[in-house]
Design goal:
Chain B: It comes from Nocardioides imazamoxiresistens. The complex is a heterotrimer of chains A (343), B (318) and C (270). With 318 residues, chain B is an all-alpha fold. Chain B is built from 13 helices and no strands. The chains are: A mainly alpha (343), B mainly alpha (318), C alpha/beta (270).
């Protein structure tokens, strides 16, 4: 029997081997740094590069500069990066469970569940800021409903569960339309006026990224179809529940911080798959950094437009990042369509 | 045939109920008097609000049911429906843009524009589905396109007025509220023409439901029939969406209910029952939407979704 | 779940390595197998045959714990599969199902690598130590040259061998195959059956569902014929593949002659 050398290139994507993946991650990390810098240096307030740099080296020229850079600009970019990474990882996991590259976090209905809970919290306890908590609870509840009901087709059930929550949201708004503006921003997704508190609530959830990576072997096996996966020792009930559970938590955390931003969870895993192939050991980390880059870059666009547009600003009323991702997502979708047709 | 008779009677009963119920509440006899007597205090409410609304519900429901039936049989997919194929959402984007931005487009021209949006979105989804019959794949593509569309609608609504609830509901959920004869006149010709075409096409569509090879073997022009049937389905959904917004789950559900009632899956046999079931579903949902929280009106799309989704899950269970 | 406490059926010479013990299996309200028992001896090739709907694939599914018996148990070395850990079973028993999903863009190497999952487990990554096993599985199945090709682009025969290589990489002493030759041309069917013979010589116990009765007679040590969810004949090919059984089980009128090459029974329909 001839000995086969395990060839170094095991992927068929343009990025090959461990060196390639690490190189890709390093390159993306540089892009992330560039994005952070852009977010810190661009804004409505006329701060010179020197002013910003003075804050960064710890000797701010004015106290106000420190507030602008560290309390206004920095949380926004950090939340964008974190939420983008979580959305992308959630997308990877949902796609793995459903075994369909067109699934996304919204497929599970978590966004609609979160929106409904937010409306309820605003109606029941308008004075208290329960929005983040409500969003988290609503998203997790929608995920739980899906796990309980969705035996046969998770994708179909998830979309239908999402439709029910959306209808309930509307029903609640008919009764009282006061939370309308908040809910609208929620449904689109926005990073405007994020605070240090938002970032502090978000970052512990980033632990879900390594958890998703540790699940890579299981998700790889699951991707082969249920009978094959069972033959390999994957538990057919527990595994999709665990993977979907991690996906729901990641999406819930991201949605809590940034709202139900569309397309990041669909596009980032897709681009990652084009670059490094379907193996989740590579897919999870690459998709995470791509998601971070995508959401943060889209937010930079939204932010810049807000600064330019009269009557809007980088505050709550500014252009929501979800509007940018929806507009950019549509052509990307066309691209996916063409690829799908070519296959 | 008993199904057709029962369905017809049901639709008539709903029509009577829609005219009689509400504030003021009238007995059928009193309603008849009010309808024929121009001096009756309820004359205007009945002739200009309740009756056109009921007729619109009837037409729109029948149109949606037919649209769903054609899509499901032509695509051989049990979850095909304008709401899951992005067709309704595409129509809603165009309509919302026109209305919210106050573009000078006459009401009668709106269906044409809505149709354009519906066709673009629908074509995108169909191209992405390709040959697959996997329901999950179809649903996911449709959901992605619908998400893009509703993102655009929300953006447009946000641009326009200060979160105008009525506008949002009208174009994200669908509603039959505040509609008059003008709206009926917009929808009616489209629905009538499309129904006639569907009746003519029914045998070919039934052949397509058996598979392309079989249909070709039976001498049916596969591509032409499919395109025509899809066009008719899109026209029906777009016409409804241009006037009522994207009312979900009537089109998806009506054919399933009709097939179960008739005990057949043949396009020809199910066609008439589907029209009746669709009409009855939407009229009943609108009655509930109008009365349940009176005087507050629930968008009928909420009612159809809350009823339609569990019913659909039940219909699709194996 | 009541655990069957009855003693194993009248035992053959050696204790069976895998055994269905009075299993009742069905889907929803339909019962396919009722109280069926089938012991499998180590180091043998067993072929399950029978007409469509006879329950042979259901039986294989139960043996591979893809289907859970309502009553009775499948015993692996005397221990019930239901009570063994999922990966514990997968280290002993590999399954080649009829249909499997190919992840878009996955290479043959990546798919075969999945066979190492039972050894590595849910939370750990594959290691370099697994590479030789994967390479050997590719070599045994004769697809080393396809290692870094996309599985979706391979022919039906090549793809089938990728799945078999995955099962081989699992390094189990039991291999269950569900209609492994269905999509293969004559040449690849022959290759596959020879591969099965090679594995048996290495001590692997094989149970497979086969449609082709002549194939079963030629390559199996034991042929088990099922009809309506019950075993109607069980024994050496020469004892099972007879005109009487063909008439009884498949309803065909046939003559059986010795195969000129192997001497095994070979049937010809009249």
């Amino acid at each position: 029997m001839s000995a086969v050398r395990p060839a170094p290139a095991r992927t068929v994507g343009p990025v090959r081997g461990v060196v390639g993946v690490v190189g890709l991650l390093v390159a993306t990390a540089l892009v992330v740094l560039a994005l952070v810098a852009a977010h810190l240096f661009v804004g409505r307030s006329e701060l010179s590069a020197g002013d910003v740099a003075s804050v960064l080296v710890g000797r701010p020229r004015q106290e106000a500069y420190e507030i602008i850079v560290l309390r206004l600009r920095l949380p926004r970019v950090l939340v964008g990066l974190g939420a983008g990474a979580l959305l992308a990882v959630s997308g990877v996991l949902v796609q793995a469970v459903v075994r369909n590259p067109l699934a996304e976090p919204a497929t599970t209905g978590v966004g609609s569940g979160a929106a409904f809970a937010v409306v309820l919290s605003l109606l029941v306890a308008p004075g208290h800021d329960l929005v983040p908590l409500a969003a988290l609870v609503g998203a997790v509840a929608a995920g739980a409903v899906l796990l309980l009901v969705g035996r046969r087709s998770l994708a179909l059930t998830g979309i239908l569960v999402g439709a029910v929550f959306a209808a309930l949201t509307s029903f609640a708004l008919v009764v009282d339309s006061a939370p309308m503006g908040t809910v609208l921003r929620w449904l689109v997704g926005s990073l405007n006026a994020r605070t240090t508190g938002d970032w502090q609530a978000l970052w512990p959830w980033l632990a879900l990224v390594p958890v998703a990576w540790l699940l890579a072997s299981t998700t790889n096996a699951w991707a082969l179809g249920a009978p094959t996966a069972v033959g390999l020792g994957v538990r057919p009930r527990l595994t999709p529940a665990v993977v979907l559970g991690v996906a729901v938590l990641a999406a819930a955390a991201a949605i809590t911080a940034a709202g139900a931003v569309a397309f990041v969870g669909l596009v980032a895993p897709h681009v990652a798959r084009l670059l490094v192939g379907p193996d989740h050991r590579r897919l999870v980390p690459v998709a995470a950094v791509l998601g971070a880059v995508l959401l943060s870059a889209a937010d930079l666009v939204a932010f810049s437009v807000s600064v330019q547009l009269p009557g809007t600003g980088p505050d709550v009323s500014g252009v929501p990042v979800g509007a940018v991702t929806a507009l950019v997502g549509a052509p990307l979708l066309v691209h996916l369509v063409r690829k799908g047709a070519a296959r | 045939m008993p199904v057709v008779v029962a369905g017809f009677l049901g639709v008539v009963a709903l029509l009577v109920a829609a005219v009689c119920l509400g504030e003021p509440r009238l007995s059928p006899a009193a309603a008849l008097r009010a309808l024929t007597d121009a001096d009756h205090p309820a004359y205007v409410a009945l002739t200009q609000a309740r009756l056109p609304r009921a007729v619109l519900g009837l037409l729109a429901g029948a149109a949606l049911g037919l649209s769903g039936l054609l899509l499901q049989d032509v695509l051989r997919n049990e979850v095909a429906g304008p709401e899951l194929l992005g067709v309704s959402a595409g129509a809603a984007v165009v309509t919302a843009t026109v209305v919210v931005l106050g573009l000078a487009v006459p009401l009668a021209a709106l269906p044409y524009l809505a149709l354009l949006g519906a066709l673009v979105a629908g074509a995108l989804v169909l191209a992405a589905i390709g040959g697959t019959r996997d329901p999950a794949h179809v649903v996911l593509v449709g959901a992605a396109v619908a998400a893009a569309c509703s993102g655009l609608v929300v953006a447009v609504v946000g641009l326009g007025t200060e979160g105008n609830v009525v506008v949002l509901f009208r174009y994200l959920l669908g509603s039959l509220g505040a509609r008059g004869w003008a709206h009926v006149e917009v929808v009616a010709p489209w629905v009538l023409v499309a129904t006639v075409v569907a009746v003519v096409l029914r045998r070919r569509v039934a052949a397509l439901a058996l598979g392309d090879e079989v249909a070709t073997g039976l001498g049916v022009p596969v591509v032409r029939t499919r395109l025509l049937a899809l066009l008719v389905a899109a026209v029906l959904a777009a016409a409804v969406a241009s006037v009522c917004g994207p009312i979900a789950y009537v089109a998806l559900l009506a054919p399933h209910v009709a097939r179960r009632l008739v005990g057949s899956t043949g396009t020809g046999r199910v066609l008439l029952p589907t029209l009746l079931v669709g009409a009855a579903l939407l009229m009943a949902a609108d009655l509930v939407a109008r009365l349940v929280l009176y005087p507050v009106e629930v968008p009928v799309g909420v009612a159809t979704t809350l009823v339609g989704v569990p019913a659909l899950l039940w219909a699709l269970r194996r | 779940m009541s655990r069957p406490s009855r003693v194993a059926a009248p035992a053959p010479a050696a204790a069976p390595v895998l055994a269905a013990d009075g299993v009742t299996v069905g889907y929803r309200d339909r019962t396919i197998l009722e109280g069926l028992s089938l012991p499998v001896e180590a180091g043998t090739i067993t072929a399950l045959v029978g007409p469509n709907g006879s329950g042979k694939s259901t039986l294989l599914g139960a043996l591979a714990r893809v289907l859970r018996p309502r009553r009775g148990a499948v015993l692996l070395d005397g221990a019930s599969l239901a009570e063994l850990g999922s990966r514990q079973v997968a280290r002993r028993l590999a399954l080649l199902p009829q249909s499997a999903t190919v992840p878009a863009g996955a290479t043959a190497w990546e798919v075969v690598e999945q066979g190492r999952f039972p050894q590595r487990g849910a939370w750990s990554m594959l290691r370099r130590a697994d590479d030789p096993v994967v390479a050997q599985a590719l070599a045994v199945t004769g697809i080393e040259h396809l290692a870094h090709r996309r599985v979706a682009e391979l022919s039906g025969g090549e793809r089938q061998r990728v799945w078999i290589a995955m099962a081989v990489a699992q390094q189990t002493d039991l291999l269950l195959l569900d209609e492994p030759t269905t999509f293969l041309d004559v040449r690849h069917q022959l290759d596959l059956m020879r591969l099965v013979g090679t594995l048996r010589e290495r001590g692997v116990t094989i149970v497979m569902v086969l449609h082709d009765l002549n194939q079963a007679a030629r390559y199996a040590d034991r042929v088990v014929a099922l009809r309506d969810g019950a075993v109607v004949a069980d024994g050496a090919p020469a004892d099972v593949v007879t005109p009487a059984l063909l008439a009884d089980v498949f309803g065909i009128d046939a003559v059986v002659t010795p195969d000129p090459v192997s001497g095994r029974p070979h049937f010809h329909a009249r």
